[in-house]
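[step 3/7] inverse_fold.run input=structure_tokens len=462
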């Protein structure tokens, strides 16, 4: 009884247990995936993204049209597959990751009449397979870490200047795109004249200027809340989709130059079939296509794209492994059905960024347009593109090349600039990014050995 009374008299010092808050349920994997895809594909600015989608056409249209006319490339199938690639890469990376034809393979096909569709596709499949192996084994990541930035910048500068020089040829001279030959001086006036190209060039410069620059507000300065009339007009002009407007103008002029082109259009997709590749085609494709293309793909499609992506989008993580594998898969799948071997490219990325592309929605929009055109018009679309003013096309290519070349402005020491410029000079004169890369790496190693030797000599003297 005493014990019971004592127990009743002892106050309860322990606090009553608080109810445990229920943990919020974690989102499922499909929900996370849907959220990430939505974030990657959302437009940062509607007009700017639409404009950015046109920034890659300066390199895409000439190569595809030339191969379609000269080597009977299936344009409809190429548009369908490259459109799907655009949509997928936009969703994966959340950046304007371009899809371009493989230039070394295209150049070989245009220069060599015996290098036909089977050889082109064999070269694409073999190049893609090699890139998948390099990515899956982690060797591409090792290559990315070992190659110095000054050598990569040299390759980028050479590629950018090459684009710019080609663009000037497009503007100055009449071109036969299927044969990649100049046909004489371009006339000043006309629907594809010099005056038209110069007006388009001036329009882009007025709208876009030299590119996007960030000017921070200094400490103590107050930004004007009420913009004056000049600033308002400047903002309106800067928001115009210059590349898109010029591309639409080019399409309109194509119909004006040849009104009968409307009757040559056939609706419906091109027939799609598996390409038959002989043993001889595999051999020629590897020797003449894969060997010259592989160094360019490793350097410009993977290494340079990763470096440029890190510069333009420092908040995103672009892995050489994933980019190598996506490029490889594109070609291992599409090339079997006759789609032009494709890759990413630093030039296309620079061009799309130059004209306002900032998200994956930019290239997904372009991919959707390609997909619709491929399904609706197929190969008959080449009749329209063949009438597109080449001078206007050259203007778009010129700005894409300049934007890529401007990436080389971050070389801070004379030694870095020295290596970069040697790499650029050899690449341009030899018309080979691989040769420029080898020479650039050799010069870089020699300078490093010289520095080590001088440092050891100084230590001995001390």
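[step 3/7] decode complete -> sequence:
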């Amino acid at each position: 009884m005493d014990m019971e009374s004592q127990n009743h008299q002892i106050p309860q010092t322990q606090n009553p247990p608080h109810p445990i808050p229920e943990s919020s349920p974690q989102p499922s994997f499909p929900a996370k995936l849907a959220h990430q895809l939505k974030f990657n594909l959302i437009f940062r600015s509607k007009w700017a993204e639409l404009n950015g989608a046109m920034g890659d056409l300066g390199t895409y249209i000439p190569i595809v049209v030339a191969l379609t006319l000269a080597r009977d490339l299936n344009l409809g199938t190429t548009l369908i597959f490259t459109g799907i690639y655009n949509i997928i890469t936009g969703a994966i990376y959340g950046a304007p990751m371009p899809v371009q034809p493989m230039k070394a393979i295209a150049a070989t096909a245009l220069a060599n009449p015996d290098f036909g569709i089977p050889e082109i596709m064999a070269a694409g499949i073999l190049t893609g397979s090699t890139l998948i192996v390099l990515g899956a084994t982690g060797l591409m990541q090792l290559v990315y870490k070992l190659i110095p930035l000054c050598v990569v910048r040299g390759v980028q500068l050479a590629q950018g200047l090459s684009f710019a020089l080609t663009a000037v040829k497009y503007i100055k001279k009449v071109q036969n795109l299927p044969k990649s030959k100049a046909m004489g001086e371009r006339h000043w006036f006309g629907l594809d004249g010099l005056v038209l190209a110069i007006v388009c060039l001036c329009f882009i410069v007025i709208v876009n200027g030299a590119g996007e620059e960030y000017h921070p507000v200094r400490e103590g300065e107050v930004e004007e809340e009420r913009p004056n009339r000049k600033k308002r007009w400047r903002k309106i002009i800067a928001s115009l989709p210059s590349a898109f407007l010029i591309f639409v103008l080019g399409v309109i002029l194509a119909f004006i130059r040849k009104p009968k082109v409307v009757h040559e259009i056939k609706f419906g997709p091109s027939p799609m079939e598996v390409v038959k590749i002989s043993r001889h085609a595999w051999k020629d494709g590897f020797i003449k296509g894969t060997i010259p293309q592989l160094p360019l793909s490793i350097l410009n499609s993977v290494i340079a794209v990763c470096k440029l992506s890190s510069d333009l989008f420092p908040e995103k993580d672009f892995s050489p492994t994933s980019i190598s594998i996506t490029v490889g898969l594109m070609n291992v799948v599409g090339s079997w059905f006759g789609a032009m071997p494709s890759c990413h490219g630093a030039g296309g990325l620079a061009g799309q960024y130059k004209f306002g592309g900032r998200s994956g929605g930019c290239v997904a929009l372009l991919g959707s347009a390609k997909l619709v055109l491929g399904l609706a018009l197929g190969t008959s679309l080449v009749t329209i593109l063949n009438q597109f003013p080449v001078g206007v096309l050259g203007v778009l290519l010129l700005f894409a090349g300049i934007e890529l070349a401007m990436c080389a402005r971050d070389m801070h020491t004379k030694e870095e600039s020295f290596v970069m410029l040697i790499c650029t000079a050899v690449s341009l004169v030899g018309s080979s990014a691989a040769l420029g890369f080898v020479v650039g790496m050799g010069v870089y190693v020699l300078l490093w050995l010289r520095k080590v030797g001088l440092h050891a000599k100084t230590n001995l003297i001390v």
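[step 4/7] annotate
The first strand starts at residue 100 and ends at 101.
Confidence is low (pLDDT under 50) at residues 1-13, 213-226.
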